[in-house]
Amino acid sequence: xxxxxxxxxSTKKTGVPPCFAFNGPLLRSSSFAASRFVRGQHANCRSRxxxxxxxxxxxxxxxxxxxxxxxxxxxxxxxxDGQSTFIIDRWDxxxxxxxxxxxxxxxGSLWEKAACSVSVVKGELTKDRAAAMSSRGRDAKAGQxxxxxxxxxxxxxxxxxxxxxxxxxxxxxxxxxxxxYGGGADLTPYYLFDEDAVAFHAFYKGICDKHxxxxxxxxxxxxxxxxxxxxxxxxRGVGGxxxxxxxxxxxxxxxxxxxxxxxx
Length: 264
Hints:
Strand order of the largest sheet: 2-3-4-5-6-7-11
Low-confidence stretches: 1-57
Helix content: 25-40%
Order of helices and strands: EHHHEEEHEEEEHHEEEH
Radius of gyration: 19 Å
């Protein structure tokens, strides 16, 4: 069985998306328990009571959504690991300006290190931040109040044969204006098993296609651009999906159900 370093990614034009363009046969190791968790066991939590009844909108309910999301992910990860548990670190900016919850698991049987964080921040736009938003077409002015809430994670497995998984979802809103979403998910293997890359992309393509048949191509290409490393002339890992400044999908549909499913 051929096992290749992840740096041996092929970028030949084979008629399939760049991150699928591998030369070797589709191989799979039975030790890929963490990959199964990422796209299998955790995917099942959509139907579980912990998350299935969570409602979310563009304000306070989104904040509650990411807090409950974090709890659900960490509960699933602990169950999959079976040995270690998450240490919880809470912080508060004070004066109603926000708070955060950082959960870290180390030295597990499945996860060498796994971190899942929630941050909820409120404040006023600085001149530089307002200018950056305006350059992207947002109606933003220095001094305007804003709120933001996000959940992000990075999971490193105990085995080098299992890829690192990174994902996040976030929402940003300026008071008195419409909010927008960002997020995505990507996979970085140390040793490349083609089947994992194909299955990973197929999983997120399925989510995209469910909501908008143009979304996957757009968000995958966005991810490829975002994680391109010019100094090495290569992409980081095997990519995934990435989106930002999202108020609606390419077809014009509501972005929230899509972002929520990416998160769950």
